[in-house]
Amino acid sequence: MAHRENCIPLILSLLAAFCFQVNGLENFTHSAVIKEGVYHLHWKYDNASITFEVQVQTTGYIGFGLSPNGGMAGSDIVIGWVKNGVGYLKDRYATTTAEPAIDSSQDVTLLYSSENGTHTTLQFERKLDTCDTDDRAITMGTIRIIWSYHNDDPASDTGLTYHGNTNRGAKSLYLLTGPSGNVAPTIPNDAFTVDFLNPNVAVPSATTTYWCVGFAMPKYGQKHHLIKYAPVIQAGHEALVHHILIYACHHAVNVTKYKGTSFQCYENMPPDLENCDAPVVGWAIGSEGLNFPENVGYPLGRDSDIDFIIMETHYDNPNGRSDYIDSSGIRMTITPTPRPIDCGMLQAGVAVTTNHVVPPYYSNLHSWGHCPSQCLSEAMATQPTGIKIFGVLHHTHLLGRAVHVRHFRNGVELPPVSYDDNYDFNYQEIQILKNEVTVLPNDDIVVDCTYMSNARTTVTYGGLSTKEEMCLSFLMYYPKINLTNCESIALESDLKQVSDNPSYPFVFAMNSVNWENEAKRTQFEALERNSTRYVRCGQGVTSYNVGTISALQIAQEYQPPSGPCNYSPTTPTTSSTTQVSTNTGVTKLGSFSVVVLAVIGVVLSLG
Question: Is 395 one of the catalytic residues?
Answer without folding.
Answer: yes
